[in-house]
Amino acid sequence: MEVGVMKMVNMLSHEAQGKKEKLDLKETELRLGLPGTDGEIMGKNLIMNYNGKRGYQETVDLKLNLSGMDQTDHHKEKNLQKEKTPAKAQVVGWPPVRSFRKNVMAVQKNGSEETTDKAGMGGATFVKVSMDGAPYLRKVDLKMYTSYQELFDALGKMFSSFTIGMIDFMNESKLMDLLNGSEYVPTYEDKDGDWMLVGDVPWKMFVESCKRLRIMKGTEAIGLAPRAMEKCKNRS
Amino acid sequence: MSEDEELPDLGGGSTRSSNSTAVSGGGGDHNYVSPSPDQVLENVLENVLCFLTSRRDRNAASLVCKSWYRAEALTRSELFIGNCYSVSPRRVTNRFRLVKAIAIKGKPRFSDFSLLPPDWGAHFGPWLSAMSRSYRALEKLYLKRMSVTDDDLSFAAQSFPILKELVMVCCEGFGTGGLAIVASGCREIRVLELMDSDVGDDEADWISCFPDNVTCLESFVFDCVEAPINFEALERLVARSPSLKKLRLNCYISIGQLYRLMIRAPQLTHLGTGSFSPLEIVAQGEQELNYFSAFAACKSLICLSGFREIIPDYLSAIYPVCGNLTSLNLSYANINAEQLKPVICLCHKLQTFWVLDSVSDEGLQAVSAACKDLRELRVFPVQALEDAEGPVSEVGLLAISEGCRKLQSILYFCQRMTNAAVVAMSKNCLDLVVFRLCIMGRHRPDHITGEPMDEGFGAIVKNCKKLTRLAVSGLLTDRAFSYIGQYGKLLRTLSVAFAGNTDLGLKYLLEGCPKLQKLEIRDSPFGDSALFAGLHHYYNMRFLWMSSCKVTRQGCEEIARQLPGLVVEVITRDREENETSEYVDTLYMYRSLDGPRADAPRLMVRPSLMICGKHCTSTECRFSIARSLDFTLSVWVPCISR
Lengths: 236, 642
Prior knowledge:
The structure holds two protein chains of two kinds. Chain A is of the alpha+beta class. In chain A, 34% of the residues lie in helices and 12% in strands. Chain A has helices at 25-28, 39-42, 58-67, 71-78, 99-114, 148-158, 172-180, 203-209, 225-235, and strands at residues 126-131, 138-141, 184-190, 195-197, 210-217. The chains are: A alpha+beta, B alpha/beta.
């Protein structure tokens, strides 16, 4: 079945993260569908999002709000069956609050959770995101996300017309396929000024060390491959 | 400051009559030897028509006869285009020759809530092309929900050398690069206001692009620009703008920087305070600035907003100006009742108040006690979720209704409500013109009685005889709509979501509300039969929006057949093979003099980003598209082929 905006080759797994969440393809698949048309996807709130505006997307924001809920609610949403009138899942564009306002509130919420001192903005980690061929830069606050998947979701919506390949560091040949293909691959510049493939290190470490993001064509990222290859070999 | 302004302030008062320039101009040749009676009539008319500023009056005058039509067309200098697709730019520039001010609105309001695909349309480009040829003396440009590119801004700066006012509300498609061109190119600019717009960060230092000499800036609003700016340049700009009265800063301005700006511009009347927090750690040894005195020095301040990342401790700095404030926007300030009270009790002149529900019912009670002159209240949710904690309820609404009898406009988000409170408001606030209640839980009844919210909204339409705008929510049956149809005789704008039982609901509205202009409905069980009930009225409306209702393709086609003057746009998302739907996803229809638009995504001449499934290889598109959004936008061409 064809997928929507994002195509995920395989889910990332990191030993360092401890938790193994190996979701199968169908669950991570993104499609455009009405709320309630596919119960498994509903919980992800990736439904009928027409917002191609620059800036944070509605569903990203909804995700953040979800993180305030406890785990049982989250799983309950994921398991809801087909319903014409979904009771609990968030619906696109409801309540009718503009994205700008939702984004501001989300940023504030994250900021306040992070800081105890007077510097209100200290909690955010904004990095610039550029994409090869795109006429403008974007900025993302890495602290808004808790995993690579969330970051990729957000990036995918910001630059909604490309697909980002997820890098499978466990599988050397898959990695090479990705880098040889025409898909886009996210890379970042770390504190030392080195350019690395995103996904290389555990999420938290990435947030600490990432200075800027660049989404480049797979073929161009091939130069970064040696380092990644090393890691592949070390892992397997 | 308005999140959903109906009419832009184009004229700024009739005394500023830009119509007066029409007197010397005019379209006819002045034959001084022997003017014909017709000519005399036209001269007289032109002189008289100058005094007609209301567009409705002018519309009426233009219908009297051909002579009046011509005279009116030549003397109208302020244009209002409520729907950019209702008429072609060329038709407009052919008819009105002397336009100095124009307002153009594009996308329907529900696009604010992600209910329209990106690239749907409302491009400023075509309007700009026409205007750049015909309206070179344009002074004021107001755009709402339009798609504007950097190139557009550049072309506009070149085309309108004496442009004085540029206001963009809820627009997108441009970035700080475009703003840089405006800043440097529009030398006469007095008003530059960007509100709720999505402005891309091109990393352009646009503030530095304003000319170096003394500027004539009177209003500079950029609070929605989510990009850092060059503060030193801003400080210098403010220092060389002696006429500056309105300044709204974005969240990248710290409170320390705000202080420096306020010192430079004590003449300000409207101030958007930016982040209202330090942003950096205050260096040791550095004294905390005396913000209180900075505010005290601004003796003309009547409107405050901003507070984007407020540290509540700093709020006391605004005490000196509270007594003069007529407008206060705390709707980004997450403060509680205790933090609000000391401020609000000083604001006895307040007429407009926007706030977050974090202040809870208790905070609203304080507002009710202090702000006897309140005309407009908006209460926004901190958490825009259906099942969140709701700090405000019917208690707050009731308190407001009892204390603020002059209330004209209310927007109230809550999680629970009762009919009793809404009824009380309908009886206490008889001046209500706008009543928008958003009970965030879908289909939620009166939380005390368990009844639908029919009686509450019924009372509003019945008792508030001046009501022109209504937004309903909560559990509503067809009865609520029967009330609206029965009593809502002045209603122009109506928003409906997750309401009603059967087609009767919509029928009541279409048959009962003769002044209905803008009807937006989502997720309600109204179908074709109800749609047909409005055939007699659709030409009088600006638009009808129905999404996730029970309207079929055939129904839409039938409407288009019967009403050739309507453009009927339908959006149906592509579904998987096994999924079918008999209903269209979105119906958006509007009257138009010039038929279906040529720039609907599917009908674009050049390959569009939105053509489903196709790979876009146009050199104009810089992206390589593997998969685009799946939907089909169909535009019906009734009988007449294009």
